[in-house]
Every structure is written in C-alpha cells, then in structure tokens.
Amino acid sequence: MLRRVCTVALGVWLMVSPYVLHFNGAPYTTAHVVGPVVIVIGVVSLRDVTRSFRFVGLLPVLWLMLAPWFLHVHSGVPLANEELVGIALTIQTVLPGRTRQRTGGGWLALLAVRFPHGIFSMVAQMMRTP
Amino acid sequence: MEHALPPGWSYNPCAWRDRLPLVGLAALGFAAAFYTGFYQLGIVPHLWDPFFGSQSSYLVTHSVVSRILPFPDGLLGLIGYFCDMLFGALGGADRWRRAPWLVLVFCAIITAMATVSVLLTITMGVLVRHWCTVCLFSASISTLIFGLGVGEALPALQYLTRVYGDTGALGAVWRAAWGNGACEHTTHRAPLPLPIAE
After folding, report:
1. Which residue in B124, B128, B137, B154 has the most chain A C-beta atoms within 10 A of its own C-beta, making it the best mutation to test that interface?
2. Spatial CB neighbours of B114, under 8 Å, sequence gap ≥ 6
3. A36 and A15 share one domain
4. ipTM
C-alpha cells in the first residue's frame, strides 16, 4: 500500500517538477505525459486484485529514463530528475508486494483454464500472481 | 451473503461495501462535471479556482480541445458519471454471476472515463499549458473510481471462463453473460485451477 502511494506521489512530483525545477522543452513534455500515467497505474495497483498491473508502468518509466538520450537532453537538472524518478519507480514496481486477499487465481487463471498445461500456467507459477 | 462470494475469493468485490463508495465518488464527479459543463455553456458565470485562478480555468475550459465535440466536454463528463452511478448501483452483491454484463459494462465505462481523464490532463499540461482545479478534481475522481472498481470485472470473467470450461460453447457463455445461464457453474465450486497454492 505504502509503495503504491509512493508511486502516486512520484507521479504527482513528475507533473509539478517542471515548475519547481524550472525546466521546459522536451523534459517538460515527458514529465507531463508520464506523470498522469504513473498516477493512474499507482492507483490501479492499490488493490490486491489489480496489484499485478503495476508492471504495465514499466513501459512509461522506461521511456522516462531513455527519453533524455533520444531527445538529446543534456541539461543536468531535468536529466537527473527523470533518471532518479525512473529508478525509484522501477524499484517500487519490481519489488514483490505482499497481498492479503485471495482472488480465485487472479487474472492469469483466466488463461490457465483454456490452456491448463500451457505456457500461461507456467508464467503464472513464475510470477506467483495471487 | 455467503453464496455471493466468488469461488476462491476471500472477499466479494461486488459487495455493497465496495460499490457504494464508488457510487459516492461518481456523485462527486457528477457535481464537478455539472459545474464545469454549465460554466462552459455560460449558464454559470464564474468557475471557482483557488489554486490557478479564473483566467487559467477559462483558458482550459474554453480551449480548442474542449471545443472538439459539438457540445462542451463537461457535459460528456456529466453523462459518464451518471452512467457510473447507474451501472455501479444496479444489481445485487452477486451480480458477478447473475448479471455479468452489468459488471463488464460498468468496468468499460470507468475505463473509458479514466482514459479520457488522463488524456485531458496531459492535454492541459502539454497543449494548453494552463490548469483548472475543478478539472483536475474531476480527473482524480475518475482515476480513483477506475483504480478501485476495475477489479470487479475479474470474478465476472472467471465465472464466464468457468461456463466455457464446463460447456465448451460460446453460446452458453453469451447466455451466461446476460444472466440467462443457471448459477450451477459457481455454487460450491472450487476456484479456477492454478498451480500456485494461495
């Protein structure tokens, strides 16, 4: 729960950082695109039933960390801001979280029924999805 | 209602305890969209904005993006939140099996509302470059409803998957989705097979 709240807080920080740190241009746009997305993913993964959705957040976070290199951002402040926030979000996403609720096998169970001995059961076992 | 608990679940996401807060949030969002929409129509003369100022709110609510549709986008939010309240309140605590279509329609609506809210928030920052407190409040409400409510789709989908597993017929799944299938696919059934012990 705390980790997801931190994710939302980092998303809010991304949205306000251009005004606090006074930068514009491509980093401004990146922050205002990735910030709301991170907030939504943080809120969605608050509940146990949708906790695994947090991995979807790795895509915008990956863009956040790689964008400075693609968009040739060399200024120190926005670059450091994006990299540090990206690292923090990545750590929060990949660290396993404790779930207290049982959800009948979770989302991957929908596919495990159709393919009981297939790859989806194996992936579910690897991910230990509730 | 113990029989309303989905198999293998430790709680019922369709219970009123989980749904009523979402309906309440949708009512708040409805009020915000009502205020914004009528401001865009000129019926309300002034939009309260303690953080960014009335000029900033005016630029957001009368931007090019807000005029893409033939009617103000605030009224679109009004319709969306009304549907949230309606489909959030319809059906009992076991609607995941008695009326899965209600659950899936509700989840589709809240997903659409959240998507539009995110896009409008991005537009505010990137294109308009001004902000509106009531608009951000409405976007927050949509995001919260989506985040807290979308998980309700899972027991309905698991139920329909069980129907398919039992019958192998998509027609049976279609009938079950509209609540025409019997509930024998759920009562006292083991949860869906998964190698992991919970």
Report:
1. B154
2. A40, B142, B143, B145, B146, B147
3. yes
4. 0.85
The number of domains in chain A is 2
Domain containing A83 equals 2-99
A45 and A84 belong to one structural domain: yes
φ, ψ of residue A103 in degrees (nearest 5):
-130, 40
Number of neighbouring beta carbons within 10 Å of residue B76: 16
pLDDT digits (tens, 9 = 90+) for A80-109: 899 999 999 999 898 877 778 888 888 887
Residue B12 is which amino acid?
Answer: N
Is A105 close to B114, i.e. CB distance below 8 A?
A: no
- Which chain A positions have a beta carbon within 8 Å of B8's beta carbon? 102-105
List Cα–Cα distances, B36 to B41, B81, B136, B137, in angstroms.
9, 13, 11, 11
- Residues written for chain A: 130
Q: What are the beta bridge partners of residue A126?
A: none
At A38, is the pLDDT very low, low, confident or very high (cuts 50, 70, 90)? Answer: very high
Question: pTM of the entire structure?
Answer: 0.86
CATH for B10-185 is 1.20.1440.130
- Spell out the domain ranges in chain B: 10-185
Question: Is A43 an interface residue toward B (CB < 8 Å)?
Answer: yes
Instruction: Pick from A5, A16, A43 the residue to mutate for testing the B interface (most B CBs within 10 Å).
Output: A43
Measured CA distances, A100 to A2, B10, B24, B164 (Å):
14, 9, 26, 29
Write the CB contacts of B133 (distance below 8 Å, at least 6 apart in sequence). Answer: B48, B49, B50, B51, B52, B57
Give the model confidence (pLDDT) of B10-67 as tens digits: 999 999 999 999 999 999 999 999 999 999 999 998 899 999 999 899 989 988 888 7
- Answer whether B36's CB lies under 8 Å from B138's CB: yes
Q: Is B93 helix (H, G, I), strand (E, B) or coil?
A: coil
Q: What is the pLDDT of residue B168?
A: 81
Residues A129 and A91 occupy one common structural domain: no
SS3 helix, strand, coil % of chain B, rounded to 5? Answer: 70, 0, 30
